[in-house]
Amino acid sequence: MAQSRDGGNPFAEPGELDNPFQDPAVIQHRPSSQYATLDVYNPFETREPSRKLSPTEPKNYGSYSTQASAAAATAELLKKQEELNRKAEELDRRERELQHAALGGTATRRNNWPPLPSFSPVQPCFFQDISMEIPQEFQKTVSTMYYLWMCSTLALLLNFLACLASFCVANNNGSSFGLSILWVLLFTPCSFVCWYRPMYKAFRSDSSFNFFVFFFIFFVQDVLYVLQAIGIPNWGFSGWISALMVLQLNTAVAVLMLLVALLFTGIAVLGIVMLKRIHSLYRRTGRCDELVFPRPHRRPGHGARPVPVVGREHPAVPP
């Protein structure tokens, strides 16, 4: 009986021969997930039909948000890398400056301004190197102020020529011609020493005192720039009023004076803009309040230890 059920296999185990669930007909009809039989069928379950990708459809390797976050992280890394490179350049510049100061003193750090020939009996009076002495984030500001000083010097020279031309046209403009010579000889060196050098030293060494000197003197310089642009008669400035008065006498001289007045106006506007910009940079460092309102000393017991006064005997504290 068992041999006929198992197909006549004499080597089959007795347990397998007597187990009715090992019948191939029963095993074939067991419930599985591939067939929706009553045992595994759930009417409330929603199944999505499987969709096959077409050969031309690209594979989805990640969502858009994942790609955007990866791009943002890459941009942040690049930004940090640029900042590190800038700091490395700043450290290299500081190191070169310290090496120059330690090695040579006056031998390697010779004065280079004003640039005069070697055979001149007058030697340079100042050392100036914006790329080496000024921090990188302030080099553009210091260079702009240097160009502003050069433009003001050029404007004073043109003002001298315009006053000379107006003196040739009208003999009553002799006082303006004489004052224009005085302004060239006085304002050119004084402006460099009185407001440009303090500004240069302030950005070089972060000095609050030099900033204060620069703000005070350059404010007066801006007022003079405005007066130069206005051109009050007999003040030695070829401004708008003086140019319009000469326009009735000679057109060519009036055009020259108008060009000088336009140059004075541009210098005055740029001076006011740069004064405001440097003041904002100074306030950003947090030193403006310390200059106007000195930082108060902390009292003992508020996070700082009391400083003993030399020469004063303190009474013994009882136990």
UniProtKB/TrEMBL annotation:
Topology of this chain in the membrane: Multi-pass membrane protein
Domain of life, per lineage: Eukaryota
Annotated TM spans: 146-170, 176-196, 208-232, 252-275
Family assignment from sequence similarity: Belongs to the SCAMP family.
GO terms for biological process, alphabetical: protein transport
Keyword Coiled coil found: yes
Coiled coil: 70-101
Subcellular location: Membrane
Positions of region (Disordered): 1-66, 299-319
Any single Gene Ontology cellular-component annotation: trans-Golgi network membrane
Keywords, alphabetical: Coiled coil, Membrane, Transmembrane, Transmembrane helix, Transport
InterPro entries according to UniProt: SCAMP
Protein name stated in the entry: Secretory carrier-associated membrane protein
Origin organism lineage: Eukaryota, Metazoa, Chordata, Craniata, Vertebrata
